[in-house]
Specification:
3 domains
């Protein structure tokens, strides 16, 4: 039974993305074969708990289907998203189970307790935070982080001095979730901890607390910590703070950092600070960095700085970069930066012939943002050659925004099999300028620690 519970509970620790998330996070993919083997004959209640982790995040969720393989057992587990408050007897039973010698039982117990109201479980977790058993102290700090009671701030600050790294790390994580300024200086005190796990957790927690006082210490971590994981989280924390006073130091770190994932996060932090002083370092990264993700994030960040002198550098990236993602985000960035009536850089025009549909879409959208009246001929030529309905819609918008209309081209588009293309052509023929800001391409989500 413990083998069944353990294998099924592993499903609760992965998102619905499964193995697709493994490359991004560094965690091992789920062993689907072992999971299916263990699932055979598992009790319905345990299987339903595991199944809750495999979500479809569209409208509704799997628990709302009229009939599922588990039937009533699944409906009991899934109602109210599993957050139903338990009777006190069950709460007591779960707290007793925290002392189990089985890791799976402890995991299930603390996570179920974490769904209870803070006032119902906080004092019991705080009591266990002082347990002589290190494993119990770790799980208690974990539970306090899930429930986030303000009454736990002082006990958790005290636990930052615990001899066990797992207790210190979980306590730091919990304080970051509670987000109270009184915890900031004790957290900063852990930035030099001898455990990488503790340093990472404390830096992450400090980044969640809204205060500029930690910025100098975060910069020292970024510049000096031996762990790329910790340096990456420090860059994220600086970006969270929008630390304009740190942009010079961030720019210097971007040029010296050896790990590409840290450089990617530094570029994100420079963009999130929205200060023009980081534009030079970002432009250098866009031209020279060997990593596609770093160059793409640099292109995005240049748009966020608002520095219009970066348009030429972005145009060069569209012309020369080997990555379609970088070219597409650079085109988007030009559309964000350049004002209406700005002359389109040559790279943006060449992107209308890019092999990648998404790059052409973003280039067409950017041309619409610029509204360069001298580009109507090129846009008309692109319309005649374009096969993608999405890109054609963007080109029609760009044509109208640029003040030019070709009745011949627009009339031809009325024959399109795509109804929205036909609608756009009609709008163009009648001189409508009402479909702004459609379409609206966005770059990929920015990095997170």
């Amino acid at each position: 039974m413990q083998r069944i519970i353990g294998a099924l509970t592993a499903a609760m620790l992965v998102s619905s993305g499964g193995t697709s998330n493994a490359a991004a996070t560094g965690y091992a993919p789920m062993d689907v074969a072992a999971l299916l083997t263990a699932a055979h004959g598992a009790p319905p209640m345990i299987c339903a708990l595991a199944a809750r982790s495999v979500r479809n995040y569209g409208w509704g969720n799997s628990g709302e289907a009229p009939s599922t393989p588990l039937g009533a057992a699944a409906m009991v587990i899934n109602r109210d998203n599993g957050d139903t408050q338990l009777p006190q007897a069950d709460v007591d039973r779960l707290f007793t189970a925290l002392a189990s010698d089985d890791a799976c039982v402890r995991e299930l117990s603390v996570r179920m307790l974490g769904n209870q109201r803070a006032d119902a479980v906080a004092s019991a977790f705080v009591t266990r935070l002082a347990s002589p058993d290190a494993a119990m102290r770790e799980v208690a700090a974990f539970g306090l982080g899930m429930t986030q009671p303000k009454t736990a701030i002082d006990p958790l600050i005290g636990a930052l001095r615990d001899a066990t790294p797992g207790v210190r790390a979980n306590s730091a994580w919990a304080l970051g979730r509670i987000d109270h300024g009184r915890a900031l200086q004790p957290l900063v005190g852990l930035f030099r901890d001898n455990s990488e796990m503790v340093r990472e957790a404390s830096v992450l927690a400090a980044g969640r607390i809204d205060s500029a006082s930690s910025i100098p210490a975060l910069l020292r971590v970024l510049q000096n910590d031996e762990s790329p994981r910790v340096r990456r989280v420090a860059a994220w924390a600086l970006g969270q703070r929008g630390a304009r006073e740190a942009t010079d130091a961030l720019g210097g770190a971007l040029s010296k950092e050896s790990d590409p994932r840290v450089r990617e996060m530094i570029a994100w932090a420079l963009g999130n600070s929205r200060g023009k002083s980081g534009a030079e370092a970002l432009g250098t990264a866009l031209r020279r960095d060997s990593d596609d993700d770093v160059r793409e994030t640099a292109a995005w960040a240049l748009a966020e700085t608002g520095d219009r002198t970066a348009v030429d550098a972005l145009g060069n990236a569209i012309e020369n970069d080997k990555s379609s993602r970088v070219r597409g985000t650079a085109a988007w960035a030009i559309g964000q930066l350049a004002g209406h009536g700005t002359k389109a850089p040559a790279g943006l025009l060449r992107a209308l012939k890019d092999e990648n549909d998404d790059t052409r879409l973003r280039a067409a959208w950017a041309l619409g943002q610029l509204g360069d009246a001298g580009m109507t001929s090129e846009i008309n030529n692109a319309l005649k050659a374009e096969k993608s309905d999405q890109v054609r819609k963007a080109l029609i918008r760009a044509l109208i925004k640029s003040g030019g209309r070709s009745e011949e081209t627009l009339t031809e588009l009325l024959k399109s099999s795509d109804a929205t293309v036909r609608e756009s052509a009609v709008r163009g023929l009648v001189g409508s300028n009402s479909f702004n800001p459609w379409p609206w391409p966005q770059p990929r989500p920015r990095p997170f620690p």
